[in-house]
Amino acid sequence: MSARFATRSLGERSIRSPLSFVAPFVHGLPDGAPGFTHDDAGVLYDIELPRHASHVVPRAFERAGPREMIFFDPKKVTAGVVTAGGVCPGINNVLRSIAVELRHRYGVERILGFRYGFAGLDVRSSEIPFELTTDVVRDIHSRGGTFLGTSRGICDVEFLTAGLAKWGVDVLFTIGGDGTMRAAHMIDAEARKRGMRVAVVGVPKTIDNDIPFVDKTFGFDTAIATARMAIDAAHAEARSVDRGVGLVKLMGRHAGFIATHATLASHDVNACLIPEVPFELGGPGGFLAWLDERLARRRHALVVVAEGCSKGFEGLPVELDASGNVRFNTEAGDVGHLLRHAIEQHFEGSGRKATLKYIDPSYMVRALRATAEDAIFCDALARHAVHAAMAGKTDILVGRWHRRFTHVGLDDVLAHVKRVDPTSDLWCQVLESTGQPPFRNSTSERSERAVVK
Amino acid sequence: MSARFATRSLGERSIRSPLSFVAPFVHGLPDGAPGFTHDDAGVLYDIELPRHASHVVPRAFERAGPREMIFFDPKKVTAGVVTAGGVCPGINNVLRSIAVELRHRYGVERILGFRYGFAGLDVRSSEIPFELTTDVVRDIHSRGGTFLGTSRGICDVEFLTAGLAKWGVDVLFTIGGDGTMRAAHMIDAEARKRGMRVAVVGVPKTIDNDIPFVDKTFGFDTAIATARMAIDAAHAEARSVDRGVGLVKLMGRHAGFIATHATLASHDVNACLIPEVPFELGGPGGFLAWLDERLARRRHALVVVAEGCSKGFEGLPVELDASGNVRFNTEAGDVGHLLRHAIEQHFEGSGRKATLKYIDPSYMVRALRATAEDAIFCDALARHAVHAAMAGKTDILVGRWHRRFTHVGLDDVLAHVKRVDPTSDLWCQVLESTGQPPFRNSTSERSERAVVK
Amino acid sequence: MSARFATRSLGERSIRSPLSFVAPFVHGLPDGAPGFTHDDAGVLYDIELPRHASHVVPRAFERAGPREMIFFDPKKVTAGVVTAGGVCPGINNVLRSIAVELRHRYGVERILGFRYGFAGLDVRSSEIPFELTTDVVRDIHSRGGTFLGTSRGICDVEFLTAGLAKWGVDVLFTIGGDGTMRAAHMIDAEARKRGMRVAVVGVPKTIDNDIPFVDKTFGFDTAIATARMAIDAAHAEARSVDRGVGLVKLMGRHAGFIATHATLASHDVNACLIPEVPFELGGPGGFLAWLDERLARRRHALVVVAEGCSKGFEGLPVELDASGNVRFNTEAGDVGHLLRHAIEQHFEGSGRKATLKYIDPSYMVRALRATAEDAIFCDALARHAVHAAMAGKTDILVGRWHRRFTHVGLDDVLAHVKRVDPTSDLWCQVLESTGQPPFRNSTSERSERAVVK
Amino acid sequence: MSARFATRSLGERSIRSPLSFVAPFVHGLPDGAPGFTHDDAGVLYDIELPRHASHVVPRAFERAGPREMIFFDPKKVTAGVVTAGGVCPGINNVLRSIAVELRHRYGVERILGFRYGFAGLDVRSSEIPFELTTDVVRDIHSRGGTFLGTSRGICDVEFLTAGLAKWGVDVLFTIGGDGTMRAAHMIDAEARKRGMRVAVVGVPKTIDNDIPFVDKTFGFDTAIATARMAIDAAHAEARSVDRGVGLVKLMGRHAGFIATHATLASHDVNACLIPEVPFELGGPGGFLAWLDERLARRRHALVVVAEGCSKGFEGLPVELDASGNVRFNTEAGDVGHLLRHAIEQHFEGSGRKATLKYIDPSYMVRALRATAEDAIFCDALARHAVHAAMAGKTDILVGRWHRRFTHVGLDDVLAHVKRVDPTSDLWCQVLESTGQPPFRNSTSERSERAVVK
Questions:
Q1: What are the angstrom distances between the C-alpha of D316 and each of B410, D286, D313, D319?
Q2: Which of A408, B219, B268, C427 has the highest Cβ tally under 10 A?
Q3: How far is D256 from chain C (nearest CA, A)?
Q4: Does residue D348 sit at the A interface (CB-CB below 8 Å)?
Q5: Which DSSP helix (H) or strand (E) runs through B232?
Q6: Where are any strands of DSSP class E within C166-243?
Q7: C234 and chain A: CB distance < 8 Å anywhere?
């Protein structure tokens, strides 16, 4: 490869690597060769698209940033903000920076914060929105939760669009996850149908970090910090008794990002279980057999399991919440409790007793103040959302890709999902860190993977 | 632009943006058009270099990762580790993960940790290196500092290379900053001259985040978290009195990365001063005139200054430390103290007294335990360093570029510097966050900028 | 009153206080007058017992501290340490300070740390105790859990005493709760029976703070700090939705100390439920009626419940653990889950839906590193335990009373229990802070209260 | 001793204790016997004064708490609050709880928060006080500093008393230190002279913990937690280099409480220097000789010095601040800098170089959010202050003595000082923890000690 940044090697490589756990993985780089990294794999120095790219145009995102010419007259515009879905560290940072950027940088004077999610925007609602003045938002970034209030589920889009008209909103910021982005997309369509000129800009929020085309969602760093604290505690418990097992359940209904990152942050975890990598509990090669061996050899074990690891637990009762999401949190079907019981029963029966401590930090990981890293990220997201909206961009969310801020069309977002890719560097690092073997699983085929990380 | 991820806009943009502070900036994207972002600016979706890139090969880094065929036989190899320069959060995480990856994943049995930097590697030293066994490294990641010890300055490279021979080291990991990378580069050359087959792999460490071709150095996230705490305290002090000024000095001899990021993390800072953006203290348009106006209008002010902001303070006495770096920390020439006195004198003289509280968290920002985010990063850096070394790569450091791990040749690294680019998104975000004006400066020309972020 | 420190009042008090919630309380000071504090109630300036107290000797504890003449010859003594029962923040601080005081201050050279609780002391055990050298204990105070390991339940006292003889232990430190103190008491008796001269000194440890004659047990401050974090999260969740209920379950099987103190530390809790103050869920004046009213009026509520609040939940299945303690943690009988279901059912049925978020920090409150305050306390407890043991004191624990360190005979300790006194200042402060009403309860009589705080 | 709680000893004590460092101390208990603790020293079980104490009345404080009959009619009363002097963790907790107790428990409707200390109460001031409504105080406890603002120095008491009359204040809460209590005392006298019926109640606030007749002032626990963080960082720095010295300067102009407690919380400090225990730097038996020996033996050292340790540094320039307090913080006379230079010069000259890292957390220790422990304490202090004021108590502060809340007359408070007693358990524990020798000092006599702890 004639690329600019050459590196040097000592000589011929003639020894086969002992890293057996890499074998099943396909890095896909380059050309999908199976396993391991090739020397001619490269990372582009410059990831900005050349302006007048001649013929072949690679896939790219529109760059976010302040536009020289804008669509809305700041003096006449009314902005609205909605936070929907679950809470997440940093929402208040986003709210504050949206308000500050609009008011102090652009000169927008009317900024309405609708209460309790889309319910407060509904034309039939009796809630009066907050005016997001400087005094109102000054200190909200020191607190968790959402200052505006949130709710799950959305009512008829017509009522929401009528709400926009009622309050004269020209620019709407929707801070939320999948469901919120779907609502934003529909509101945009409805507004267009009605001939309303409303810019609808999404700020992606999900504690699970599972929004496609976004490097990392805000609040994630904070969630990992709190999750590490829970893992530290479980580690202390596990090491403090003979044959101690520390079990920590972390959020992640469909994606194991919190579980994998918290595992890596800890360094001490011995097994990490996520929905994307199925495993069997019993039998040879199963999780319990490994745990048995680990306890015999090392006298304690530390296990992290993601909320959505329901494979292998048949007959799991399923409930839906108001947004139509699966509710995993009821005790009966809670994976943490199921796994805990499975482990306890296994050792109880075997005569080799283990002492298990179970920690479920649950909402603690999502309701605390944003870490410094997250605070910076929230601020940048908010300001880029304002730049986009003032320029008249609509039906988009503000994303981050390879550490650059971008605009991503909502239909692209809604057509994909993001999961932990079991062939990625991320999962490879988890295996290196934990030393866990590939657990046996009868259903190795994976589906619905689209965007990997 | 025909790129894949299209976005939609409401219509023609005909209003000129009021964001005056963007004007002087050149985003350089695309085609170096002055100021603001263009709609046809894009961010590439895929940043991996195509394998058989036909004709035009863009600049790229070699991809880090485990190689299928390796150079060293794990059973016969002796590894050595050195930590040099100042401490940084996460060094112990790196040490632990290097040891774990070498021993448990590759099967390397002899891992030597040299004491107190290169001094311990010197063939004339009487220090016995630590054997980095599992028991020795198990819990070191819960502490700050460097478990091995460090020192500044390096002796003659010949003595160090002789030290490698004395201890039979085949693979050397050097964890450090500029000076350390220079030493690694020289050791590699000397070893080659002697016909020794030694792989020398650097892990970049600098609290200031100023190593080129690396997204972010480890420990930086932790430093920002601690710096934010200091800023929070200064903010509380400033708001608690009439005409209160909170002044926080942060590390950064040549680069203002800590100051800028901590400013953004806080949201509350009113002015951020960094070496890359010169400013004058006195006179109209100077910093003190702004501060005067701010106190009159808002009754308190919060200011962050980077260590290296010595412009404008003439007659600054200069000392050098053992590594030949400028020592800024002596009180006489300390920028924090100089600025504090300048402010106090200004208001004392004017009859409009201000109450200033000065906080210098100094070494606190670099000696604490790594945050979760940093811990993950340290672990990945360490493992990639091991993969590189076992594959026989030498004279490189393990970098991260656009969130991918890379190999970067040390001569490339040593030939560049990394600074805050005053035309970058980063500095633009600082201006948006603080609302600070461009302070007058007589010497606007900038030099030695090479790699921007 | 002619006491030394006089205070002044403005004049006659003729208005009846509106503090109705004080009415049912009996402060007992002085002379058991019902309710409120009298002006002639006083707090003694000096609480040290006069040395040659002539005739009437008030109840007092023996003062802890270094004795001039000691019983054991430091050069010949063998010390042993056991940690038993659940973990608690600060155990490692205690272990470290015991070892440092023994070795560096007294010159004791042989200090054995028995593994995994009393099981490791059992003469039949194959576990080899740790030698607690300076190197071994140097950094253990930076971690949670117990470095030695612990276990629940004790085997036959004869085997333990035989274990003391086997290892030649002259001085035994037992760090633990109720069960551990009972074991220590029995070991002391057995050793005396055998004519062994062994000093058995207890260091009281219980996360629940329910050991009598001890102001506050170590680790409690840390537990409260973590519990406050959980409450902060629940508060953010509750405020972030319309009709949000944050419910936090905290440890405390029999005593509500963690729940009350965490409630006070938060300032934001609206109701605190503890085992010592029975309440009814349903009916007028019950908890649910109050919650209904609170949500209608304020749109959110924050509730803390102690683990042991099982009254009102009939048919609660009871299990015992290895130490014979009631296990409340199984989901079926878990008070947090029971209360959560009761609340959800209540509002589900009523048509006035509430959104409840449940947080159970469980083991997180007891497995983290000790706070600064706790670390100081642990250090002092440990050193006083060493002073006592070296002086030949036995069958005692080291306590703290009115901020003085004391010796308390184990039979006194074992004959009493410590609970939150519903007539105390502590509970009064909880009522002032939460504003909660006295909930109706049919069984107001309380039993087994002995020592109040 | 026939006291109730008997303890048992193994037998005759015939060995002299090796604890030589106890020798110079006088525990004073009982009967002033020199050194060590006697077996017949006791701690009273009950510290409440018997109500109808017959003849001999021991010294005692009046008990704080809600009175049944009160002086002011809540519906007609106007309350005022002033915060003065430096900030301290927990001030906002105190403000919030005063407001909540007054409004929600007593029904007081008019609560005025004067801005920026006594300056805002001055009848000539143009500042409008805040109305402390529920909305205003709701979230202030999550922040450091003082929500009301503060200032140093007080103007003529007549103007302040006239301010009380101007705003119709019946009840004044003054939150502050020495100077504030003196002002409160004078305001009370002036108001009495004018025939005004105003209750003036102080809440003692000082980060240095040096207010007499108060166990511990609020914010102290938080200060220690932050100080420990600084010490942890200095420890990591010191251990990370050969012959590393970590030096931490902590607040404490006259009293070494922060330095001693932070030393104990860390466990890692090797020498703690406080104003109450003079020491010489040079010469045999001096501090530098000890440091030399320590570095030779252990290769690193960790030293804590209190701000007020100016003895031994002759020619220290002295400045006074607006309250007439000595300003130690200017660099020239800063003890931390002086000590640092002394150490560096000593080793520079000797040819045995040491690497010193100096950390001065300064205002960080006093401007952060209150810890859980402090938050509880602040809440209780505030509520007791309200009880006292509503009952018409005046010219007092609310104190805590042996963990009971008390009323202390301000003239008693102003007539005494509180210092670390070098013969106390506290200092003894410091010596046990650090292992530091008694440094030589030529001026061993101490003065102005009155109240010890």
A1: 51, 20, 6, 10
A2: B219
A3: 15
A4: no
A5: helix B220-239
A6: 171-176, 199-204
A7: yes
pLDDT digits (tens, 9 = 90+) for B225-269: 999 999 999 999 999 999 999 999 999 999 999 999 999 999 999
Q: D54 CB contacts (<8 Å, ≥6 apart)?
A: none
C208, C210, C292, C360: which one is catalytic? C208
Q: Is D153 on the interface with B (CB under 8 A)?
A: no
pTM of the model: 0.90
Q: Which residues of D touch A142 (CB under 8 A)?
A: 142-143
* Residue among D178, D208, D210, D221 flagged as catalytic: D208
Q: Considering only the C-alpha atoms of chain D, give the largest distance between any 2 of them, rounded to a whole number of Å.
A: 76
| D224: contact with C, CB 8 A cutoff | yes
Q: What angle do CA D117, B353, B244 make, to 5 degrees?
A: 55
Q: Report the SS3 class of residue A63.
A: strand
Radius of gyration of chain B (CA): 24
CB-based contact, B371 to chain D, within 8 Å: no
Nearest chain B residue to C143, by CA:
B142
Chain B residues within 8 A of D149 when measuring between CB atoms? 239-242
DSSP letter for D5, please.
S
Strands C15-16 and D69-70: what pairing? Answer: antiparallel
Looking at B330-369, which runs of residues are DSSP E strands?
A: 355-359
Contact of D298 with chain C, judged by CB distance below 8 Å, is answered with no
C143 chain-B contacts, CB cut-off 8 A: 139, 142
Give how far C170 is from chain A: nearest CA, Å.
25
Q: Compute how many other C-beta atoms are within 10 angstroms of the C-beta atom of residue D5.
A: 23
Residues of A involved in catalysis: 208
Complex confidence, ipTM: 0.88
**Taking CB atoms and an 8 Å limit, are A144 and C331 in contact across chains?**
no
Q: Which residue of D has its CA nearest to B223?
A: D233
Amino acid at A199: A
Q: Which chains touch C (3 or more CB pairs under 8 A)?
A: A, B, D
**Would you call C444 helix, strand, or coil by DSSP?**
coil
CA gap A295, A354 in Å, rounded: 8
Secondary element (H or E) of residue B400? strand B396-401
CB contacts of C432 in chain D (<8 Å) are 101, 105, 383
